[in-house]
Structures are given as C-alpha cells and as structure tokens.
Amino acid sequence: MKKIILFLAVILLISCKKETDKSISNKIQNTQNSEIGFISYGDLLISKSDFVSQIQNNNDIKLQRANLSKIKFDYDKFTTWDYNTTEEKNIGTITLKLKKEKKKNPDATLFTHINLSIYKNDKKIDELTVYKEENYSEALVAINQYFYIDSDLNLWTLETNEDEDGIKVIFWNYYKIDKGSGKINLIKHHIFNNSQTPDVNKNNNSWIGKYSFEKSNRDDLKTSFEIVINNLNNITVVYISDGEKPETYKNIVGEIVADDKIKIVFNKKYDDMGIIYIQNYGKEYIISGEPISTINPGNEEFPLRKIK
C-alpha cells in the first residue's frame, strides 16, 4: 500500500512540474550572476567590418548569400516568438530584455521586429530595435537586421536589403550600452549609398517637416507635441502636458538611434520625461517615450501626424 501511495505521489509531482514548465514556456529567463559577467549574445560576425564589406562590395548574389550563411547564431528563432515571449539577461543593476514588437505591416508577408529594452532597478531606461525580418512577396524584397552584443555591452546592428538586383547593406551601426545609466549610446552610424536608399548623414533630410500629436488621458487632460524639424541640428518642440501652459524648446539637436528612428531630448531637467522618439514606417510615423507612455498607461506609443 505504501508503495502505491509513493508511486502516486511521484506521478503527481511530475504532472505538476509539466504544468509549471508549460506556464513559463513563453518566458525565457537567462539570468547571469554579475560576478561571472555577461557573455556575448548574437553572432560575432555582425561586429566585423570585413564581413560587412564582403557583402556590400560583392555583386554576385550567390557569393553574398554564401557570406550571410556564415552567420551561425539562430536569429530565426525570433520569428517563432509570440508577443508574450521575452528573453532577459541581468548584468548588475541593469536588465537587458528582448521582446517582440506589437506591430504589423499589412503589406508584408512576414513581419517580425525584436526590441532590446534596458531596465535599471525595474525602470525602463532605453529601447532599440535590434532584429528585423520583413518579406514583401509582391515587391520581391526582403529586409533583415541582425545584432551582436559583446561582453562589454558594445552593440552592433546590421541591416540588409535583398531584391532582384542582389543584397545591399543599408546600415551598420555601433552602440555602447552604459552599464551605469542603462542608456544605449550611438557611437558610429554607417549608412551606405545604394540604389535602394539615398545617401544619408547626421543631418538626414528625410526627417525635415512639421509633426503634430495630441491625446487626452482618462481625466480628459490633453498632452500634445508640435515638432518642427528643420534638420537634425535645428528642432523646435512645443509641449503641453496634461492641459498645462505650452512649453517651447528651440535649437534642439536630434540623435539617430536607428535607421528609421530618432531621439529628441527637449528638456534634460525632466530626465526620461524630457525625451521623445520618432520612428518612421514608410509613410507612417510613431511617437513614443515616457511623456507618451504616461498618458494612458499600457500604451507606449501612438501615431504621429506629419503635416508637411
């Protein structure tokens, strides 16, 4: 009788373990002791200039694909993630969190974006799109972005565009994640002059224009932004917070944090509440940042209207 009871107890424990494993299957925790240190993540080739040159300077698509096939890290796993899947890595007081972006493009056959968010003491500090896989079957175009983070928290991102003419490098960026503050700082921004894309620099003309955003919170108090970008070294922001008096900021310098995203610090005294981000998706624009996410908690970004 005791043997039967013991057998049933073992079966029950195994069953409970399976249910527990199933409940956490969508959250991949990879926590590392700060004394051991952070181990690199991604494929080392993404950080190598000669690897980038082999793709960019070769017109034979077979050789280009052969070079890309040298990437051994399994980036394809990100396409299987759902919106609840996260992967976390802890380094001292900061946490690196990878999560699938809740955004779709109706023109894309396949559309996967993975964002890297940096948290310090459980507070979100910064965010960057580090992985992309976009396939447009009608246009016969595929866009891919890869990333690599080394043990010192240096970060590289590489974006490529493949169409009927071959594979071209769109941009290759180098960032540094500050271990103290958790900020992602852009160190070098390389954009290549391809037939698919215009030659762009720090004064990127594609951002020039006037933008408008307005949203009310649950108490019907409005928050709004009027943004005029003459160039990335000359930005004006008119900010209204929760129905208060307008605040005007001039001669702001914007920062490119990704090929399709800029960062605008309009008031350093506000810390994170003085920072907004503008991201471009074709003809659409998105505004995000702490002043936006606090309007209606749970919504971290909203559409931004480009007036001209």
Provide structural commentary.
This is Lipoprotein. By secondary structure, the protein is mainly β. The chain folds into 2 domains: 27-191, no CATH class; 205-306, Lipocalin (Beta Barrel). It is 14% helix and 46% strand. Strands 1, 2, 3, 4, 5, 6, 7, 8, 9 and 10 form a 10-stranded mixed β-sheet that branches. Strand 7 and strand 8 form a beta hairpin. Helix 2 runs antiparallel to helix 3. The N and C termini lie far apart (82 Å).
Number of domains: 2
Put simply, the count of helices is: 4
How far from one another are the termini? 82 Å
Shape: globular
Provide the succession of SSEs.
HEEHHEEEEEEEEEEEEEEEEHE
Percent strand: over 45%
Radius of gyration: 22 Å
Q: How many beta strands in the DSSP annotation?
A: 19
Largest sheet: 10 strands, mixed
Structural class: mainly beta
What percent of residues adopt helix (DSSP H or I)?
10-25%
Question: What would the keywords be for this entry?
Answer:
308 residues; mainly beta; Lipocalin; 2 domains; ten-stranded mixed beta sheet; 14% helix; disordered N terminus
Question: Gist?
Answer:
The chain is mainly β and about 300 residues long.
